[in-house]
Amino acid sequence: MRDTFLSFIRYTCGDLRKVSELAGTTTEDLSPLVAEIVHFRESSQDIWEMAAAAAEQTLADAAAPPDFVVYVSENDPDVAGSLGRILDRLGLVSVAHLAVSGQDCGNLAPAVQVASDAIHSGRCDRVLLVLADRAASGRRVMASGLSVFSDGAAACVITRDPVRDGPQFRVVGTGSRTAIRLDAGGTAEQGILATVRLASESIADLLGALGRGRDDFPYVVMPNYRPDAQKFLMAAMKMPVQKLLLGPVTDLGHCFSADTLITLHQQAASGTLTTGDRLLVATSGPHSWSTMAVECL
C-alpha cells in the first residue's frame, strides 16, 4: 500500500443514553458494560441522514470537492438508495461512487485500502469516505458483552498527498487476516483467542512488509470495546498495555466501523497525538482483523 492521507475527519452521533437503560432488553450481563462503557448513542435518524450530516461537516472544511465517494455501512437496508440521497444532499450528483461492507465493524481498513487503490491508480484525486451505522433492532449489546453499539457516522477526505491545514494522518500500510469459522463451536474464550491469533498475524504481516518493529509504534488504537477487554487483547498479543490509547469509550460506546476514526480525530484535536507520532490502528470484524500503520502529521 502506498502512502495515503486522511484529513478533515468529522463525525456525528446520536443522543447520549445510559447503558443501564438497556436492563431487561438483553440476556447479557450488563454490569461490566454499565461500569466500563457507561453511555451509548441512540439516534432516530436514518443511517443515510447521519452519513450526510458527517459528510457535510467534512466538505465544509475541505479545500476542494471529492471526485469519488466511498460509502460504508453494514446495517443500511437500502445502500443504493442511501447513496443517491447522500450525494443529492451534498450536491455531488455526478460523482462516481461505491459502497463497501462485509466486515461489519472492521470495514474501515478495507475501505481505506479501496480508496487508496483508486487514488494511486489515477482514477481520482480526492475520495470522500463516509462510514455510518445504526444498531439493528435487538442488537444493541455486542456478543460476549464486549461493548454497546452506538448510532453515528464519521467522514474524511482521502488523498495521495498531504493537505495544508489541520490534523491529518498518513496511512503507510495495512495488514489483514481472515478466518471464517461458521460452524465453529467452543466457548467465548476460545473465540477471543481465535481473534487474538488473527490480530497477532495481521500485525506481524504489516510490520514485516514495512520492515519495522513493534517498538516503532508507541500507540495502539482499538475499537471501543470495554477497556478491560482491550487490555486483555493487548496482553494476549504481547503488546505493552501502556501503548493502548483509549478512545471516548464512556461517551461514545462502539460506533461500528467509525469509532477508530473518531478516536484519531479526538486525540489529535486534544493534543495527545502530535506530529510524528506513530500508531497501530486496529479494526475487527466477525471473521477478520486488520491493522493499519498510521502517522500523525
Automatic annotation (TrEMBL):
InterPro entries: ACP_syn_III_N (IPR013751), Thiolase-like (IPR016039). Pfam families: ACP_syn_III. Keywords: Cytoplasm. One of its GO terms (biological process) is fatty acid biosynthetic process. Coiled coil: none annotated. It comes from the Bacteria. Residues 105-165 form the Beta-ketoacyl-[acyl-carrier-protein] synthase III N-terminal domain. SUPFAM superfamilies: Thiolase-like (SSF53901). GO terms for molecular function: 3-oxoacyl-[acyl-carrier-protein] synthase activity. This is Beta-ketoacyl-[acyl-carrier-protein] synthase III N-terminal domain-containing protein. It comes from Streptomyces caeruleatus.
